[in-house]
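Lab notes, practical 5.
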Amino acid sequence: MGVLEDLKERLHKAENMAEEYRKQAGVTQSRLDDTLKEQAKLEERVHEEEERIEDLESDKKDILRQRRELEAIYEADRVAAIEEKERTLAREEEMQATIQRLKEIIAQKDIRSGLDEEKRVSRTCKSIPSLTEW
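Output from the prediction step:
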């Protein structure tokens, strides 16, 4: 019976080892399942973050386009303002020149008028008999 006892003991050890391996396999399978679930969550999160990045890049492109448009509008407005200022200055210079010419014309007319007046007074004085002649 020693052999039978030995076989029973070996069978019992083998069953215990098999049970231990089953437990380890169960724990390992549970860890694998947890890991796969976590991987799925992480993959979903990565996908969401990639979509977020795409949205942000799209927003960035739109903002850069809008900025370029605003810069173009600003530059056009700046150029228009400079041109308007130049036109205003040119008009002001023309008006100043016109005013100066008018002043000169008036001054010349005043001078001529003064000379004409002197001639008239001088002629009038000559045509009036003096008091001594009376």
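Observations recorded by the TA: The CA atoms of residues 107 and 113 lie 10 Å apart. Helices lie at 2-127.
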